[in-house]
């Protein structure tokens, strides 16, 4: 299919981690900045080299100001499966598009990037010298060039079988780098306040990008924990708010999660985490609240809901209630009654979450959450659905040989009506959803079996 002439081809150099999360992130960010995912590349798979068509360089730069899955982006001038094919491609690239970056008053340098192979300095110089046919008129400046160009060579994905010649060679003008440094600067290891389930910084930013979080949005986390997901959204300029059923976590009290520290200190709380990164102005509040019984008035409040519900493994799934509760209901408790926490089935938790998102998200707002699954039994039909929410992406992260969690992104496409609240109960898939309720037992049964197998092997 021919691409519109207004679109320029760009080469994305992707990071080689969280592979399933990369494509949804890039699609979401392009959509956020007014672009559309357009590519002649049939499959991406594990390759670090992606060719995209983007309407403008501004959109390409905005993309790189947000992505943690991409390392760099280049305006693609030529490509080929051999040096000769690359050179022919470069000679066919319009000279008028090259001239603004090659004139006599400019400075430049050429870099070599190889994937899955290391070149000698002599080999690098030889490749650069072979480009002398390009109309470079400026001066070489290796320290502070105005323009940087790159030759990128792809030697495949198998480090045990490196070919003599590259599978593909690319040449392009460097535009910008991604935000990979955020993973280190926001590392949980450096954070004031952490818990047993604090989200990895890289995944937190990926979730915010999947949720299309932007400046002045209001982002909510109903299972806020220590607030790691709020930090990522606040970094992108969103105002953040959260709730959690655990009083001690919300108020930063109780036993510390860090090694060699018994109790949490006075500066260990969610607000202090945002203050640590200069993001306190985006902090709205965090309240003690039960996600199964939201106390919100009817209305649409949030641009995104981004959360990591408890799975019952390291953090228990709880809701408030009375031990005397029975399915048919109970008499109203007196005002002086202090509710105790009861178990909260995963299937109920996710249905409550989807209903809450459908009610409180603005149209076009996104829900991003983690769904734990027992891999041998998993099918796509197990993904909870709602008539107001459209599934955007579903990405897997392995937890063990038999379990994983899936990052689910949904977008509100329809105004919520009262009849939508229980529509999922009419679905034939209700029994599949309830399979999530035994995730904890299946998780630990697999761990027990693995330990038994390892112990048996050690005795033989």
From TrEMBL:
Record GO cellular component, one term: tRNA methyltransferase complex
Entries under InterPro entries matching the protein: DNA_methylase_N6_adenine_CS, RlmKL-like_Mtase, SAM-dependent_MTases_sf, TRMT11, TRMT11_N
An individual GO BP term: methylation
Every tRNA (guanine(10)-N(2))-methyltransferase TRMT11 N-terminal domain range: 9-180
Subcellular location: Cytoplasm
PROSITE patterns cross-referenced by the UniProt entry: N6_MTASE, SAM_MT_TRM11
Predominant subcellular localization, coarse grouping: cytoplasm
Keywords attached to this entry: Cytoplasm, Methyltransferase, RNA-binding, S-adenosyl-L-methionine, Transferase, tRNA processing, tRNA-binding
E.C. designation(s): 2.1.1.214
Leading EC class: transferase
Residue ranges of every copy of the Ribosomal RNA large subunit methyltransferase K/L-like methyltransferase domain listed in the record: 190-320
Gene Ontology terms for molecular function: tRNA (guanine(10)-N2)-methyltransferase activity; tRNA binding
Catalytic activity: guanosine(10) in tRNA + S-adenosyl-L-methionine = N(2)-methylguanosine(10) in tRNA + S-adenosyl-L-homocysteine + H(+)
Statement: the UniProt record of this protein carries the keyword RNA-binding: yes
Tagged with keyword Nucleus: no
Self-association and partners: Part of the heterodimeric TRMT11-TRM112 methyltransferase complex; this complex forms an active tRNA methyltransferase, where TRMT112 acts as an activator of the catalytic subunit TRMT11.
Similarity comment text for this entry: Belongs to the class I-like SAM-binding methyltransferase superfamily. TRM11 methyltransferase family.
UniProt function note: Catalytic subunit of the TRMT11-TRM112 methyltransferase complex, that specifically mediates the S-adenosyl-L-methionine-dependent N(2)-methylation of guanosine nucleotide at position 10 (m2G10) in tRNAs. This is one of the major tRNA (guanine-N(2))-methyltransferases.
Name recorded for this polypeptide: tRNA (guanine(10)-N(2))-methyltransferase TRMT11
Organism: Orycteropus afer afer
Gene name, Swiss-Prot/TrEMBL: TRMT11
């Amino acid at each position: 299919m021919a691409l519109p002439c207004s679109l320029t081809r760009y080469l994305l150099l992707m990071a080689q981690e969280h592979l399933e999360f990369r494509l949804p992130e890039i699609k979401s960010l392009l959509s956020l900045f007014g672009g559309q995912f357009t590519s002649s590349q049939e499959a991406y798979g594990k390759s670090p080299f992606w060719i995209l068509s983007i309407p403008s360089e501004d959109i390409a730069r905005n993309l790189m100001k947000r992505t943690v899955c991409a390392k760099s982006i280049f305006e693609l001038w030529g490509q080929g499966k051999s040096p000769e094919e690359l050179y022919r491609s470069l000679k066919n690239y319009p000279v008028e598009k090259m001239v603004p970056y090659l004139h006599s008053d400019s400075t430049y340098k050429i870099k070599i990037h190889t994937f899955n192979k290391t070149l000698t300095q002599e080999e690098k110089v030889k490749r650069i010298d072979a480009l002398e046919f390009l109309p470079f008129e400026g001066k070489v400046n290796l320290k502070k060039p105005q323009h940087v160009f790159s030759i990128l060579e792809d030697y495949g994905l198998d480090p045990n079988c490196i070919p003599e010649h590259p599978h593909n060679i690319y040449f392009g003008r460097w535009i910008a780098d991604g935000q990979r440094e955020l993973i280190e600067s926001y590392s949980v290891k450096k954070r004031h306040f952490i818990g047993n389930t604090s989200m990895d910084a890289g995944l937190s930013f990926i979730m915010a990008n999947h949720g299309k979080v932007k400046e002045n949005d209001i982002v909510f986390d109903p299972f806020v924990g220590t607030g790691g997901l709020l930090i990522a959204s606040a970094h992108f300029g969103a105002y953040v708010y959260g709730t959690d059923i655990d009083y001690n976590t919300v108020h930063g009290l109780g036993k510390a999660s860090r090694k060699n520290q018994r109790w949490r200190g006075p500066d260990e709380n969610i607000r202090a985490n945002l203050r640590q990164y200069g993001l306190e102005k985006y902090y709205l509040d965090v309240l003690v609240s039960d996600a199964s019984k939201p106390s919100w008035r009817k209305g649409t409040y949030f641009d995104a809901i981004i959360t990591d519900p408890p799975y019952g493994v390291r953090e228990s799934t709880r809701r408030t209630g009375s031990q005397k509760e029975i399915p048919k209901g109970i008499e109203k408790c007196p005002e002086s009654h202090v509710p105790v926490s009861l178990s909260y089935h995963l299937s109920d938790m996710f249905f409550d979450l989807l209903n809450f998102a459908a009610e409180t998200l603005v149209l076009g707002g996104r829900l991003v959450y983690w769904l734990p699954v027992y891999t041998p039994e998993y099918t796509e039909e197990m993904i909870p659905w709602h008539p107001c929410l459209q599934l955007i992406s579903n990405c897997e992260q392995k937890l063990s040989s038999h379990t994983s969690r899936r990052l689910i992104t949904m977008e509100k496409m329809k105004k919520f009506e009262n009849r939508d609240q229980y529509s999922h109960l009419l679905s034939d898939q209700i029994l599949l959803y309830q399979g999530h309720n035994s995730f904890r037992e299946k998780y630990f049964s697999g761990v027990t079996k693995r330990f038994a197998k390892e112990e048996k092997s050690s005795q033989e």
